Structure formats: structure tokens, C-alpha cells
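Now for my pick.
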Amino acid sequence: METRFLGASGLKVPVLGFGVGTFGGKGPLFSAWGNTDVDEAKRLIDICLDAGVNFFDTADAYSDGASESILGAALKGRRERALVSTKTAIRLSDDPNDAGASRSRLLKAVDASLRRLGTDYIDLLQLHAFDAHTPIEETLSALDDLIKAGKVRYVGASNFSGWQLMKSLSIAGQRNLPRYIAHQVYYSLIGRDYEWELMPLGIDQGVGAVVWSPLGWGRLTGKIRRGQPLPAGSRLHDTAGFAPPVDEERLYRVVDALDEVAAETGKSVPQVALNWLLHRPTVSTVLIGARNEEQLRQNLDAAGWNLDASQIDRLDAASATMPPYPYYPYWNGQFTELSPPPVKPTGVR
């Protein structure tokens, strides 16, 4: 499995990571994703480690902490072989202090995650969302203390806007506090908003993308087709309300292009969609999920081969949209094609 540096850090991660939101199955969203128990989790992790995938991503909000607990139990006796990533900041209870990124919340949340995970350190701690109520200096200072205590090794963000991430990085630089090396983001062939601002920021500031929902909330599995009803087993029946909206005609245009490239490469539609992401600037790792062994093995086969330039161009064209102001180029009243940001190969310095 190919590895890349995670942002501008010295930490190397596999290009595919395993997102364990399917572990636990509690609540309306996560029960639709999956309900993997400890025994099945052990088997899935065996397969990942054998394939060179040692990056596992979870969150304290996933299935009310059950995802962390199951991941910890499944890694028991082999923790040293894994890179464990978790997230915090989303509200977990009615307690007014059980949300956000205050010093009080972060110290309490990390200790709770460590207990559930059955470990004494977290490789990557990410803020699940930006906390507008807590001074950034307070958040970064608490993260600094957690690093110095040996409880956390690296820090990142998730779902931040450009100004939120850049302000955090700027304050970190000014105050000699920890910088976010990773940004966990929604990015797919039908969700390319990441490219308008966050990708150029990541290139400039050395922040690696950890991609979540790379198949567009299950829309790029190859099962959704023009003129056909949503398959009975699709999780979109239960999770569509949580998913970003997608123009149907654009979705079908992307699926048509994926079908064409899949036929040329002998790969499946999801494998092509995942491989396209591995060619994008700033992408350090793409999180794959799986409810069973078959799905996992299929997704793991998205790495170890490359789309050619013409195939990438066709997928780019099929999924392209006009970016919002001020991200589209404008000159003498004429709109022109958006030029890609300067590309520095990920993991090369």
C-alpha cells in the first residue's frame, strides 16, 4: 500500500484509511451505516493490516462512543501496529459543557476517548467542527497540553471553512502552538466544493486532506442509475437527509463517465471513483468504509493502480461545476475555465 506524508508533518499514512463509523450501529444515522460488532471488527482490521492499511478513523460521536470502544477492543494486543485517529467537538449530551473545543471539554473528551479506545495515546486528534464560542488560543493551548502530556501526537481539524482553518493556523504560528496537519473533509466526484478554497489553502499551508464519504454518501457505488428507482438496500433511504444535495443530472453524467472508465480499466465504479481522488492535490488518505468483508476487499482494490490522463480528464469534465464567486476567474467580463492550483506531489518535499 502506497504511503504519503500527512500534510507537512513527518507522519506517513496509507493512501487508503479505514473509517469505522460502521462500528456500533447506534442511532438513526449510524444504524443505517452498519452495526459491526467486535468479532467482525477484528476480522475487518485483520484484512486492513494485511493490505497495509493501518490508519483507522473514528469519533466520540459515532454510535455514542461505541465505535471507539469496538475499535479499541478489536486492536487489543496490536495497538502498536495501528494509527488511531478520532474526533471530538460535536455535542454528546445535554450538559452545556459537553460540546465544543473549550479546555474543559477537550481534556475531558480525550480522557474518555482513551478509556474507550483502550490506549494511552491518540495518533491524530481532530476537532470535528469549529467552535465559534471558544477563543482559538484556548483550544490550541489545550491541544498543546495534551501533546505535551503524551496523550495526543498530532492534531487536525474537520469540516472547517477556509477562514476558520487559516485563522487557527495563523494563531498557532504566532503563539508557537500546535498546527493542524490534517483537515478531514467531504470530497468526491459529486462533491468538489473542497477545491475552491480549502485545497489551495492546504497546498499553501501544508495541510493534508483526510477524505470522508469519497463515494458521495453511497451515490457512486454503481447502483444508482438514470431512470431507475433507488435500490431497496441503499442506505440513502435512511440517510439522504444528512447528505449534501446533488443535482440529479450531474450525478448521472458522472455515473456515465465512471461506467465508461470502469469498462476500460476492468475496475468497478466505486474503485474508479476512489482512485480519482488519489490523484488530487493535498489528498493524504481516503477513508473507505465497509459493512462486510466483501465491501472492504472491493474498496481496498481502489489502490495499487492508476487512471491514465485521458480518463482523469473525462471524469474531471463530467463532474465539473462553475465555482461560486469569487473563485471563478473573471477577466473583461468573460468567464474562463478554472485553472487548477499549482500541484506539488503529495508526500514529496
Residues 332-349 have pLDDT under 50 and may be disordered.
